[in-house]
């Protein structure tokens, strides 16, 4: 067995495509009727499709999982995030742990939790 994709639910597919491209450099591989496959095996699906499939409401900011990215120049990333998406909601501001590792946590446009951290020292 092999994990092929990670899917997140979004309200506005166009805004989310732009968000993930702007911040993480993810590009569209396939765009098909409310389902978008981005590079790195990352999939966006419109909320209305997900709700129809499950028959349940989407719970924003459920904090039950997070997307994790690594970025060596996290200060530059934090600056880009603040400049491009000034209204983003932070969970953890840019923090340096005693190990030297730095992280920042925030929600994407749809309440999906994201952590960006420096590679392990």
Please, could you describe this protein's structure?
This protein has 121 residues and is an alpha/beta fold. It has two domains: 1-58, 2,3-Dihydroxybiphenyl 1,2-Dioxygenase, domain 1 (Roll), CATH 3.10.180.10; 61-121, 2,3-Dihydroxybiphenyl 1,2-Dioxygenase, domain 1 (Roll). The chain is built from three helices and eight strands; from the N terminus they run E-H-E-E-E-H-E-H-E-E-E. The chain has helices at residues 13-24, 47-54, 74-84, and strands spanning 6-10, 28-32, 35-38, 42-46, 67-70, 90-96, 102-107, 113-117. The strands form two sheets. The protein has a four-stranded mixed β-sheet with strand order 1-4-3-2. It has a four-stranded mixed β-sheet with strand order 5-8-7-6, with helices on one face. The chain is globular and about 45 Å long.
Overview in brief:
By secondary structure, the chain is of the alpha/beta class.
Keywords:
Glyas_Bleomycin-R_OHBP_Dase, globular, alpha/beta, 2,3-Dihydroxybiphenyl 1,2-Dioxygenase, domain 1, 4-stranded mixed sheet, 121 residues, single chain, 26% helix
